[in-house]
Amino acid sequence: MATLKELLQREKHVIIHGQTLWFRIIKYLVIVAVAVWLYRWQGGSTTVAVFLVLAVVSIAVHFLFRWKTKAWTQSWGPYKKIPFD
Predict the structure, then answer these.
(1) What's the CA gap between 74 and 76, in Å, rounded?
(2) How far is residue 45's CA from residue 13's CA, in Å, rounded to a whole number?
(3) How far apart (Å, rounded) are the C-alpha atoms in residues 85 and 63?
(4) What pLDDT sits at residue 37?
(5) Cut 0.85: pTM above it
(6) pLDDT in tens, 31-66
(7) Long-range contact set of residues 62-71: C-beta below 8 Å, sequence gap at least 24
């Protein structure tokens, strides 16, 4: 069983190394573009509701991957194990 410090270090490592810089830039550009489009089309309350639902789904997917990869220590699906420093 990992200590809390080791667990937090592993989570930090996955956050930093899990996606490339270009992937993150494009991801956030797409998110902003969708938010602007949705706001102009349906207004602020719908945009907030959609992004709240998406936040809940993304947290659920995060915990699914964390569970299936045994806290990021094994490859599973599209996730490939990242060697920790």
Answers:
(1) 6
(2) 35
(3) 23
(4) 98
(5) no
(6) 999 999 999 999 999 999 999 999 999 999 999 998
(7) 71/2, 71/7, 71/10
